[in-house]
Input
Amino acid sequence: SYNSDRPQRPRYGNEGVDRPQRPYNSDRSYNSDRSYNTDRSYRPRYNSEDGDRPQRPRYNNEGGDRPYRPRFNSGGGRPGGYGNRDSYSRPIRRSADYDPNAKYSKKKQIEYKEQFVDPNEPIRLNKFLANAGVCSRREADEFITAGVVSVNGEVVTELGTKIKRGDEVKFHDQTVSIERKIYVLLNKPKDTVTTSDDPQARRTVMDLVKGACNERIYPVGRLDRNTTGVLLLTNDGDLASKLTHPKYLKKKIYHVHLDKNLTKADMEQIAAGIQLDDGEIRADAISYTDDFKKDDVGIEIHSGKNRIVRRIFESLGYKVMKLDRVYFAGLTKKGLRRGEWRYLTEQEVNFLRMGSFE
Output
């Protein structure tokens, strides 16, 4: 038997030694009896003359063998490891505001990069206005020289003026303040309204993300009540405008389920362009999602017109049974179940701000 020292890495070539479920070499050709499936954890060597297979070690008991793990400390193994789930589980330390039903806690949201580290650190006035979502820095300079910006009650026209976060800044006599920017990506479910408030008391997307932050965020663009998929919510007005304004042509991809098979002729017509009540519209790309199911279609489009995808197919005599947006301006719902949300990463936010995504 082993003592408290960690067992050595097994030598798989020796007779009588079981191969662990996850070997550390590149050889993945297992024996045909597939006996390795009976135990996922490493078992120490035993005498092949005994004939009996050793029992799975109980790691929590005193004297129990620890499964082999490279460079683990002695404090019970790495949280979230791939070994025994009883002894290698997720961390159990939780903050006071931990919500077991929430995929992301507020603690993670608070770790989002702050735009101001020191509230007393001077900041250029044009940068302050840009961070508040009023305009770009270049535009802010034009507004400053035009005399429509005041600080603490005094009009400022000198470029390069620095202020503090606590100063009172007004733009066209409207107070300007900086909120920490929040970016939330939601995989919208059916029967959910894309609005901040619904007079009919139906479920809204805001109900699904109400625990995300204290700041007031709002959806970027709209999805129909029964349309599912990628939806961005933020308080960054400047970015929201860039993502929804027609001149920026942000790509959207939808997975469409129809009530009947889409003919090749109708598909070609959608790609070439069809005439709707509010003008001509055409798909940037369209194809079947399955070689055998002609009622499942993928369509790529840039237009942000109301119910545009449904209207395209309805104009040709098809009824859209399900509509799922799988891509929006470089963002996908990968890793998110229906109704779940996550914060955008710093890299995603930077890409959106720079316009790197289509």
